[in-house]
């Protein structure tokens, strides 16, 4: 996240510096070279400085660590900034179309621009295209929609310079409306990208899930992990280029709590290695499929350990020591409880004696419908 922040900040500062330089050159060049289009493009570069400030603030806030007030972090700031930049792209495209229509349907007499104005427009085009490619490269590497939006904003600036370039060439050659037709084509491209970024930002803000193909890939990777029997309720959402997952893993009911936790931790590690842009994974370990609502509801109505301990103490007090009753293992599975009693071997115990004790323990609970069975295990201290 820190690397993400510094890279985004560095790229934005580079863009801001280029906007200052280009704004000064284009406005002065347009004034002295008789090019209203170049002056407008220079003012557009100044407006881009406002955009750069938005990006700087967004990357600064979105890189902050999660806290009590914002437990999922500040990544939504980046999403909102992406939406703002996307709307700016839409406005830019519509503005170019409006200007093009004005040129096509209105007739103005103007002084032919100077030749060096052509060089300024070409210089602006090259600078913005380089910035576009450089920023887009890091946007893909860091999975940052904000950097991607900023990259395409550089491309829109390059498109604006292209319109100016074509217009100047057309004016020098006598084709007065060539720049208008070219600008409409470029504007459509800008509007398309602005719409796509707006659509992506809105989907992220309302927590639309990940692509189904990617989810299938994640599910396949999870099922390949040893100890995972099945997976359900896999959900994913994106926030500022980061992915948040939550899921239920089905494991064997005979596993210990620590082994179930180990499988969950291994699943988390393997998924984060597979997808570095995963920020957080919440895993619920299930000993049985809890998607069956009726079964799950009935299981939740079973008595907890404290209540059951009192019951067992009353029924088994002549058969087991109080400490042995307290240490029993309870398995809550399929609307019933299985009880495992572990006893230390203090002397030789034959099979018949052990079987007789287990039978007595079972019979004392025979009238309780939610008790499935009683198991007896002997261990060496």
Could you say what the CATH topology of the largest domain is called?
A: Alpha-lytic protease prodomain-like
Order of neighbouring strands in the sheet with most strands: 1-2-3
**What is the general shape?**
rod-shaped
Give the H and E element order. Answer: HHHHHHHEEHEHHHEEHE
Number of helices: 12
Structure, explained:
There is one protein chain. This protein is of the alpha/beta class and 381 residues long. The protein has three domains: 2-205, Up-down Bundle (Alpha-lytic protease prodomain-like); 212-291, 2-Layer Sandwich (Alpha-Beta Plaits); 298-379, Cation efflux protein, cytoplasmic domain (Alpha-Beta Plaits, 2-Layer Sandwich), CATH 3.30.70. The chain is 64% helix and 13% strand. It contains twelve helices and six strands. Strands 1-2-3 form a three-stranded mixed sheet. It starts with a helix and ends with a strand. The mean pLDDT is 81.
